[in-house]
Amino acid sequence: MAGAAVSAAAAPLRRRLAPDERREQILCCAVRLFGERRYSAVSTTEIAAQAGVTRGLVNHYFGTKRELYLVVVRRMLRVPGSAVTALPTGSLRTRVSTSVDWFLDSVSPHARTWVAVTATEGVGRDPDVEAILAEADEVAVEHVLAAVGLDRTLPGDEQRRAMIRAYGAMVKAATREWLLRDTLSRDELHLLLTQSLVSLVRDTFAHLAVAAAAK
Length: 215
Prior knowledge:
Elements: H1 2-10, H2 19-36, H3 44-51, H4 55-62, H5 65-77, H6 82-85, H7 92-107, H8 111-118, H9 127-148, H10 157-181, H11 186-214
Helix pairs in contact: 2-3, 2-5, 2-8, 3-4, 5-8, 5-9, 7-11, 8-10, 9-10, 10-11
């Protein structure tokens, strides 16, 4: 009896997670699984098993598989405000280079999921996913404008925003070259993204401002 009591006392106790911690645990499993396989090949039953919970608890926190996937999409595209406010003071190149480093650091831990989400692979043309992607593009534009210190009241603001959205599309395509095809190293990708944005802000936007002032 004493030996049994000692064994029971020595056995590790399973820590009861708070709701937010449990939700995060489930979400992390979903992020990983949706990166490993296509949307249709992942089930909430498997996500629950990987997270060590019941499928009912997954449904409790997230609803259907599609609703959970939308949360994953938002997680992959989230850009916290600190990504801009924490930028160092200094030259345009310094700020852009730091921003690019932050972006590459943020996508690399879940590279395959980021690729699947930004390409809307597996789920097809889902209007809710497309709306999240469009919203994320606009948030990215705002962050770029803040990061490079552009005055949004100047003439040509809509044209600048359109050019930044186009730059964002190039960022996604170039990042896939690094993550999927291994045709660009991280250093080469960093150079491409940094130089392209510096040139866009310093040269192209300057010409745009001159043209707008001449009208």
